[in-house]
Amino acid sequence: MKTGFVALIGLPNAGKSTIVNALIGEKVGIVSKKPQTTRRHVIGVYTDSESQICFMDSPGRVREDSGLNLFLKQELESVIRKSDVCLAVLNIDAKKLDDLLEIVELTKEAKKPWAIVINKIDLDSSIGSGLREMKLRQTLVSYGVPVVACSAVKNEKKIQQLLLPLLKDLLPESEKPLFGEEIYTTQTTRELVAEIVREKCFEYLHQEVPYGIAVKVVKYDESQKLPRIFVDIIVAKENFLSMVVGRGGQMIKRIGASSRIECERTLQQKIYLETHVKVKKDWTKNPEMMKELGYVVTD
């Protein structure tokens, strides 16, 4: 049996979470059109009769190395260290080819079995006159590793057909799987709920506001038939508070209602979800506050 961990490495907003969700066939990581949605690495588990592939969805590569960005950088480095196989995710809509080649070099430097997936090829005809994929493939020939291209958001079945056999071949042999066949993510229910609420914050809030937000489940009461979940949405600035609450509380109601619907779909049960907004000034720059909110790298 082939078993192991596959690290997805790419720029912010390269579509790594979308790829993992497509390969697993379940919502494992949150997605948004905004970059740097993923903060902590998330593991999605694919299992069949021949293999178990544990996909490690990592934060996009950042250059800054202070505050929350330092955590994101260290989290990516940790994911690469823990992996058995690396997958470079190159988004066709990247602004610069050099940025993509930095991802390729970073993946190569890990000195592990690796492959490349070119993502978002559905955008090639509109932004690259259909030539970006061809030019990128020509540049990648010299690396001598497998290269496939797809649109994770447009064709889930195709990406499964392209990537799963390829990654199985790269994985090491194992006597038994790492997780039970019913497991599709290692996240706890609390973590899933917190990430879904943060996803809705990214969806409905704009400018710098979602980047200064953390979400914490403060209480998860399963003593009654209807689980009662209480969540704090934590903002880094006082002026973010009114933006998250919205006029007459409309924004926080919208975030809460949308989060509840998505949580119920993911958890496959009805829940009661209550959201509150709190200010922890400059938490993104405070190591102790970041640790309290779970933004600490564990190896």
If you had to describe this structure to a student in words, what would you say it looks like?
The chain is an alpha/beta fold. The chain has 2 domains: 2-170, P-loop containing nucleotide triphosphate hydrolases (Rossmann fold), CATH 3.40.50; 189-292, K homology (KH) domain (GMP Synthetase, Chain A, domain 3, 2-Layer Sandwich), CATH 3.30.300. 38% of the residues lie in helices and 21% in strands. The chain is built from 10 helices and 9 strands. The protein has helices spanning 16-24, 67-82, 97-109, 124-127, 132-140, 156-170, 189-204, 238-245, 250-267, 287-292, and strands at 2-10, 42-47, 51-57, 85-91, 114-119, 147-149, 213-221, 228-235, 272-279. The chain has a 6-stranded mixed beta sheet with strand order 2-3-1-4-5-6, sandwiched between helices. Helix 3 links the parallel strand 4 and strand 5. The longest helix has 18 residues, at 250-267.
Number of helices: 10
Structural class: alpha/beta
Mean pLDDT: 93
Looking at CATH, the homologous superfamily of the largest domain is: P-loop containing nucleotide triphosphate hydrolases
| Main beta sheet strand tally, sense and closure | 6 strands, mixed
Strand order of the largest sheet: 2-3-1-4-5-6
Give the helix level as a range of percent.
Answer: 25-40%
Low-confidence stretches: none
Tell me the Rg in angstroms: 20 Å
Number of domains: 2
Overall 3D shape: globular
The total beta strand count reads 9
- The proportion of residues in beta strands is 15-25%
> CATH topology of the largest domain, anyone?
Rossmann fold
The CATH architecture designation of the largest domain is 3-Layer(aba) Sandwich
